[in-house]
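Usage

Read records sequentially. Each one opens with the input sequence:
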Amino acid sequence: MSSVKVRAIGNSLGVVIPKEILDRHRIEKDDELHLVETERGIELHFFDADLEDATEWIEKGAKKYRNTLRALAQ
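and closes with the structure output:
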């Protein structure tokens, strides 16, 4: 686990991710990360637009074909 300090960045606050972690996770400048609040605290996740679109499509399909999926599951 790494510790980071909250620092002033212009008129905002931010944290600096250590280089070793950036390298290990192949995070580069301008990559988009999601900040997620959980019961355990705050987590950062990679943002993948294709995955986001796929998740929405799956959720819509699951609602539309709920009865069919239930029948197939038996």
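Summary fields computed downstream for this record:
- The first strand starts at residue 7 and ends at 9.
- DSSP finds three helices and four strands in the chain.
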